[in-house]
Design brief:
Helices cover 40% and strands 25% of the residues.
């Protein structure tokens, strides 16, 4: 099942380290089947405060997403971003093609006693 690396980043100023990180990241993702789905785009804020930008990287599965993040190649460049850009990053597994939120709601109702 597809997995995603998602980052909410709040860059303040561009510098050489950030540019080096951006130049190098694709080569760290390639061995794990990672590809950018969202990168460098302005967000359209619909609710609440949301400073910064979003990055979404897709991977074939959660195992490859974890392996990419833990890889020597990515860990070598990671400080170029984390030392210069505030933000959060998460890995999350996607849902199957036949996912139906109403089934999840029914399960949550049953589990919480609200059925």
């Amino acid at each position: 099942m597809t997995a995603y690396a998602i980052a909410h980043l709040r860059p303040e100023t561009m510098n050489e380290e950030i540019l080096t990180y951006i130049e190098a990241i694709q080569s760290t993702m390639d061995p794990f089947g990672g590809r950018f789905l969202v990168h460098g785009k302005e967000v359209e804020v619909l609710e609440g405060p949301f400073p910064g930008t979003v990055v979404v990287i897709g991977f074939p599965d959660i195992e490859r997403a974890r392996a990419w993040y833990a890889s020597d190649a990515y860990q070598a460049i990671l400080p170029l971003r984390t030392d210069h850009i505030a933000g959060e990053a998460v890995l999350v597994e996607g849902v199957p093609a036949d996912y139906d939120a109403s089934r999840t709601a029914a399960r949550l109702r049953a589990e919480s006693g609200l059925a």
